[in-house]
Amino acid sequence: MSRAVPNLMGLALLPSALFFALFFFLPIGLMAVMSFLTGNPVVMPNVVATTRHYERILEDPFYFEVMWTTVRIGLWTTAITLLLGYPLAHLMARVKSRSLHALLLMAVLMPMLTGIVVRTFAWMALLSDKGVVNQLLQGLGFAPMQLMYNEFGIVLGLVHIYLPFMILTLTGVIGRIDERLEQAAQNLGASPIRAFVEVTLPLSVPGILAGSLLVFALAISAYVTPILMGGFQIMTLPILIYQQISANFNIGFAAALGMVLLALSLVLVVAYNHILAALSGQRDLQ
Amino acid sequence: MLSIKIGRFAYLAANWAVLIFLLLPIAIIFVFALNPTPYIEFPPVGVSLKWFDKFFASSQFMSALLLSLEVAALTTVAATVLGASAALGIARGNVPGSRAITAIMLSPLMLPAILTGLALFQTYVLMDVGRPLWGLVVGHCLVTVPYVVRTTLAVLHNFDLRLEEAARNLGASPQRTFFEITLPLIKPGVIAGGIFAFIVSFDQFPVSLFLVSPGQETLPITLFNYLKYDLDGTIGAASVVSILLAALVVIGLDRTVGLRSYVKL
After folding, report:
1. Across-strand partners of B189?
2. What ipTM was reported for this prediction?
3. What is the CATH number of domain B52-262?
């Protein structure tokens, strides 16, 4: 093919390109600039460049603690999502009946189409001190348990919210694995479990990686669930960012924290895209 | 052979458990909304619609619901126009770097939505425009345009280019070919994207968090503020209303264009 020459239809790109430049890339660029300024240059005359926001993040152990909490919650969420999501993704990829597949898909999508605030409310109704689980426990004569206002509650809520993302990513990858490979292993005498562990599981590793990166990236940027399930007791990076705006109105420090979250997310997203691109490259070769 | 049976049983049991885990919380919302006491009691004491009465009688919830519907409607129109034209430009414009352009158009879905909200909020502060309604719609468009781009591109890639060529060969002008062949053929993808845009905007929280003006909040933000202090059936009723609205839209999607082809990550 000769060198691409844009035609008239190329002009259709202009409105959205302009929109993204003005309202997405410019704001993120401004956020980067603000993270190196002492204040709002529009209203304050004596704003100077500074690295003090980043120094503050590095020097105060409190912020390190916040980041570690955020990452720890992300890791737990990712691991549990993977454990719960894999069997269902496997079933969805292998099920023969079209109607059963459609039903499973509906079951996975239904929570996705329910807003995050509503789903977090459902978990609060289940796990709060006077919630359904504790009422049941007391009805059966047990002592009530502290099921939320801690990291356990946050992780449970996040697992519920991001499980569909893991299932859909894994289903796509497992569905591409030729089922006959597993059957061949079984015909050669391997037990179903061994055939799974030695054939299907290794072949689905790219899906596991892609799904895990996606869920981890989503979990560390969650706001609603950590704040409500944590009962305002546990501080994560997104909560800290919002607090800097709403309570302290420290735009520069919020921007610096935002840049940290952005950098972390970019690394994860690039890795995710590489894995998916490698996967589709493999498919093209076949 | 016993171990195979146990393995099979464990596999099915695990799947049932995961399905229950996914759906039970949603069922609980309905129980909560219809339960007459503020907390669910065992055994249940009856069924009541009083929380729905309270929800529909609350001016705070009603103005939030109306604002959410208004923002979602405006977002759907704007995102559909922007996203569909972007997809047409990518697929038909013969523009170099179309792969990179696609990645850029999808990027707001890959980055934390809370940062999209924060960056826009800072920009509005620097511009000194306050927190206008259009600012909120702009934020919602950023996270909904990618869906329209994706669904429209999916249709454009599966589309027989010879149909357009045939129209041209039979003497149709490029404009006529576009309006009579291309546009009708990509319509299902555009509609599907628009429906996604509506739901994503209607349920949107992280982008709205920084962009709503106090006292004039969307339904998810109002629910969130209510949840901070109170946990009663009103919130259940509000949740049921928003679930039913989203479900209606999805059933519409399934009826008009089919669901399966658009569920890709």
Report:
1. none
2. 0.88
3. 1.10.3720.10
